[in-house]
Amino acid sequence: MAVHERGGERRDRARRDSGLRRRAALAAGALAATGLLSALVPAPDAHAAQAQAPAPARAAAKSPATATAAKSTPGALPAPTGPHAVGTVTRHLADSARKDPWKPERGDRQIAISLFYPADRDRPAGGKGRAPAPHMDPSSAAHFGSARGAGSFNHHVRPDAADWASTRTHARVDAPVARGSKALPVVLYSAGLGDPRTWNTGLAEELASRGYVVVTVDHTYDSSEVRLANGELAESALPALAGAPVTEVDAALRRAVRARVDDTRFVLDALGSAQWRRGLPHGLGDALDLRRVGMAGHSAGGFAAAQALHDDRRLKAGVNMDGQMDFPLPDGTGSKLSTVAREGVDRPFLLLGSDGPGAAGNRASWASFRQHNRAWQAELTMAGAAHGTYTDAVSLLPALARQGALPEEDLRQGVGTVRPERAVAATRAYVVAFFDRFLKGRDGRLLDGPSPRFPEMRFQGSPAS
User: Fold this and answer.
1) Where are the domains of the chain?
2) d(Cα 387, Cα 410) in Å, to the nearest integer?
3) Nearest-angstrom CA–CA distance, 347 and 350
4) What is the pLDDT of residues 354-366, one digit of tens each?
5) Which of 99, 165, 372, 395 could form a disulfide with 344 if both were Cys (CB 3.0 to 4.6 A apart)?
6) Does the domain spanning 7-459 belong to CATH 3.40.50.1820?
7) Angstrom distance (rounded) from CA 289 to CA 272
8) Which of 230, 309, 265 has its CA nearest to residue 98?
9) Can you tell me the distance from the alpha carbon of 5 to that of 15, in angstroms, rounded to the nearest whole number?
């Protein structure tokens, strides 16, 4: 006997089915596309949803897509717009005072960092020529694009379909620091959960072109992959947590945030070492102004930026781009909120949020954070933005979607509907304006309220004085 549903019942059922499919996809391995927590919290019916899927869908779920004969090419990173050329250098650090929090049996905590800095346009890089550096080194690019890498599990690009090694930056390796550089403010950057330190190179280069030294930090065994000093590629431990019990997810997220804050503090220690700075390109170590250090991050990196500001007074200002600041389960106080969300900070802070249903995860922790802050603050939302809009995804993924390496629906869920060039311009303008104001003492008034230059940016309440 046929069963006839009313219109409202059909809509309700469609919404339930859509939600079930979405939760199943997240449990299958998408770690950060819609926020810090939602991708890892298991869905009880995920396996049932997969069992009910059509045969081709089940086959696709069991094995990664085969590589195409000619790989798709990601879009280009947008050029920096500041007055300086950009140099870059990579360094590996080992913290002998700390065992690795993810794999203590491996011994000392090892991380990789890259520095982006103002460089001279005319002087060639020492022994490296004038070719721009790759976005990712070849081994990291290959892993990032594989079924185990963040290109697939975070950003839904078909495994092995994209030629990630072809993307270039605008920075030259070991380029001489710009003539006359002195007292350059420093900005640390932490990427989203599972993403590598390279996944906001466009923003790092923009800041460097405007007179900042940007230090991007790879959080080993959290980041998709980290090439260690010995050449070994350390893969993320996070994909294995998809579908794990919520207690394990909660513990892993707390470990990730703690590790990120500890990594940040260790990097600050290294920057403060005159001996370590002597190993940087000529003149760069002497140009760092460690009295003016800020931090920015996306998603879990934005959470880490806030928590690090809360925990370490060497940081003077911070930016959180769409990162919620709570956990799946309550702690000993009975709260899911982090300490920084419960207590706020007493130095300037900027919150940049996305639009749409995924942004709901931020509301509780952001509201508490703002309520307890004791310094200048502002919260802005970019209309039409999604979680990945504030990263290199907005520049690199649309070209892959046009070539069929990424479903259009996944592209929209990842980077929203805002035009990529507008997203890049707005993100750069507000992050630069914030650090110019609070690290350089230059105020272009962009942060005073809504601006006709960026109608897509909505102030969520007036900024505090």
Assistant:
1) 7-459
2) 12
3) 10
4) 998 788 889 999 9
5) 372
6) yes
7) 10
8) 265
9) 14
Beta bridge partners of 274: none
Strand, coil or helix: what is 355?
Answer: coil
Length of the chain: 465
Residue from 414, 148, 112 nearest 263 by CA = 112
pLDDT over 80 (residue 455): yes
Contact between 36 and 327 (Cβ < 8 Å): no
Residues facing residue 225 across a β-bridge: 235
**pLDDT for 173-189, tens place per residue?**
999 999 888 899 999 99
Q: Assign 28 to helix, strand or coil.
A: coil
Q: E strand or H helix at 452, and its extent?
A: none
Is the separation of the CB atoms in 321 and 352 below 8 Å? yes
Structure tokens at 322: 């769409």
H or E stretch including 104?
Answer: none
Residue 131 or residue 154, greater confidence? 154
**Both tokens assigned to 276:** 């370590």
Which pTM does this prediction carry? 0.87
pLDDT digits (tens, 9 = 90+) for 363-415: 999 999 999 999 999 999 999 999 999 999 999 999 999 999 999 999 999 99
**DSSP structure class, residue 326:** B
Check if the beta carbon of residue 418 is closer than 8 Å to that of residue 456: yes
How far apart CA 106 and CA 109 sit, in angstroms, is 8
DSSP annotation string for 278-324: TTSSTTHHHHEEEEEEEEEEETHHHHHHHHHHHH-TT--EEEEES--
